Amino acid sequence: MTTSPTVVTLGAHVLDTLVRHVESIPEGQDGQLVDEIRVTAAGPAGGTALVLAKLGATVVSAGAIGTDAVGDQLLSLLQRDGVDTEHLVRREDHQTSASVLPIRPDGSRPAFHVIGANGAYGADDAPLDVIAAADHLHLGGPEFMGGDAAAKILAHARDNGVTTSLDSLAPSDPGMFEWIAAAFPYVDHLLVNDEQALGWTGAADLEAACRTLVEAGAGCVAVTAGAQGAVVVTADETVRVPAYDTEVVDTTGCGDAFSAGYIRGLALGRTPAEAAKLGCATAAQVAGGLGSDFGSFDLASVESFAAAAAALKEV
């Protein structure tokens, strides 16, 4: 892979509306003043796309959105950050996927979500020629098309020498794991969170969960664990990567930012563990504000942040 990779981010694209701070939902038709409301492109494909663009990658989004105003706004936000949106197909009979996220003072948040057009995208919609010409394919949200359909797209990428990664919005139950597991043998880098890894596998600890996912076919598993950082597991080694200290405002999009940093690290020729360090450093930038697109960082500033943090630990 080149140092300035072309990455196709395929799958779930969502428009997030974030509100902070919300301690409770008002009763009846009462109102409540809040500090901030923001709208951002998001989802395991859309959110990863915009952060990758900030990190200097050439990014092509592929997926489905509606023909509604929500879709227009999602396109505008992705294009503003330099993402190629030509291969986002528009469905007249589905609304654009969207979420409303009330952010609590501690940074946690419930979610109100509409699947929308994400549920109307399948293997036949994928731009196979674009994927074959890319350096990396990141598939976000295989649960919407199912593991068999996702496997077809990932196998096509593999056959053309394209590195693959996969992330998911799926809940952490074993049934969902069974639904998407057919894709895993075609995944070079599985990028999920700790709740998913533990819930899907039923393992007693995170390292055991990762090993089970490697045994299911994934070449490398990099699992995010919030303030605990990440765990990277291959058939040969297990490495724990610490999180970076930062003032957390909102955790929305941190997983997508990790994926973007990780993919960018691979493009720089780094090992999975080193790529995970860049992923954690990128996630720390996004955690400092509201939404997936928070911050004006680029690759150089994220690298400087990581280097400064490492220097402080050595003092």
Question: Can you tell me about this structure?
Answer:
With 315 residues, this protein is an alpha/beta fold. 35% of the residues lie in helices and 24% in strands. The protein is built from 10 helices and 13 strands. The strands form 2 sheets. The protein has a 9-stranded mixed sheet, sandwiched between helices. It has a 4-stranded mixed sheet with strand order 3-2-6-7. A hairpin with a 3-residue loop joins β12 (230-234) and β13. α6 packs across α7, α8 (254-267) runs antiparallel to α9 and α9 crosses α10 (299-314). It is globular and about 55 Å long. The model has no long low-confidence stretch (mean pLDDT 94).
Main sheet: strands, sense, barrel: 9 strands, mixed
CATH class of the domain at 6-24 and 34-225: Alpha Beta
Give, in order, the helices and strands: EEEHEHEEEHEHEHEHHEEEHHH
Q: Output mean pLDDT.
A: 94
Which fold name is given in CATH as the topology of the domain at 6-24 and 34-225?
A: UDP-N-acetylmuramoyl-L-alanine:D-glutamate ligase
